[in-house]
Amino acid sequence: MTIEEFGRRLRAREITAAQVTDQCLRRIETDNPRLNAFILVMADEARRQALASDQALAAGRDRGPLHGVPISIKDLLDMRGLPTTAASRVRDGHRANRDATAITHLRQAGAVFIGKTNLHEFAFGTTSEDSAFGPARNPHDTARSPGGSSGGSAASVAAGMALASIGTDTGGSIRIPAAACGTVGLKPSFGEVSIDGVVPLSRTLDHVGPLTQTVSDACLVYHALLGDERVTPPAPMPLHGLRLAVPRRYFCDLLEDEVRARFESALDRLRAGGAHFDDIEIHHAADIAPVYLHIVLGDAAAYHATALETMPERYTPPVRLRLEMGRYILAEDYVRALKGRELLKREVDAALAQHDALVLPTLPISAPPLGANSVEVGATTEPVRNLMLRLTQLFNVTGHPAISIPSGRTSAGMPCAVQLVGCRMQTDALLRVALTCEPHVSSEV
Amino acid sequence: MTIESWLQAAIADAERRGLPDLKPVLETLARATTALRAADFSDHADK
What we know:
The structure holds 2 protein chains of 2 kinds. By secondary structure, chain A is of the alpha/beta class. Chain A contains 14 helices and 13 strands. The model of chain A has no long low-confidence stretch (mean pLDDT about 95). Chain B is elongated, with a radius of gyration of 13 Å. Chain B starts with a helix and ends in a 9-residue tail after the last helix.
């Protein structure tokens, strides 16, 4: 059930928030043992909130589109009175004394909090397998990763355990799991949604955003996160005349065959509907990974330095090694990366100057098997982490809003996805483009 | 500091701290730093 459908049926008195919350809790009871999507299930609190939502609505107090909607929260956001584990033993004993700003806004919008979801430890990974609570698993194939770092969030939405989830995205951590699990994932423009009360990975790359079943739902949750309570999704714009830019070099160089086929057929359907395409180039695309790496490692090492000295054994070994790597970054190289960041920002701005959005795949591969360090793509073998970040990290470096939309499945039944990227501080405009493209992109081949 | 001398010092420090597993990770970082310094946006005082 989408949030839009929930809202219609709730206000038509066909369903209650309590009933739908119970359905989600039953689904969690059935499926969480195999998916490990949740670190904490808030059954009693969710039922209490849902009942209060129904009573408020009956009394004529309607808080808007998220009124009574069961939502899961990545366990990286503070919720008053609860531990924020960040999926790490480093956080043992933590208890938040206030809500993250994003949670405050969701409370004001009437959301029902169903639980806190599993993630890659401290959001520093793309597969959600290095977690103090064990790996989260993909609902489409439990031998595979749900993507990460917001893997539990994506799994919870894909499996019907919540109508939406809140994730964070530092190099792709909303869009990657959304693509791997077949949900929509929105990274808003940098700085729009508050990261106050969110355990940081990199304060200059971190974003908070929604994972949902549809673009319309993403729009509703995004506006609730901003503190706007009564927004309705914008109307789609005409597809005819939409100007889309495809950055083929680098972004389409290394794609699994079936991912490429799904992407090209999505472009064909958009073209058949009247969208106009240009091939464009991000000239410094080859520098994206070194720029991203030096910024994220430096920022993460600064935050974790004390814990790495005092309780290193509490980290999972792969995350500890990655954080330790950051402690060797030289200041001069961090400064070089910041210079590269400004250049890349200008190049993406230039690519968007004559276009409504960039369009590219979200992931170059379908969800990888849990435990895989590398996978074959065509004739080459590549580290999983490099592949997972390859098409998303640029837009954390530059801050442009980006959304991942499901786009068919591979022959093994694994989801593929298309990513749309819009102008900085114009997330609403990107959402309009995404609403327009969604029915064409999402059609099964 | 050249990347070679940085890498040598970093590996020695990691081994001293009982983190020999860091060596391949630091070698990966050294390759990324080499690419970063070679990028045409990196300023050099002698050029």
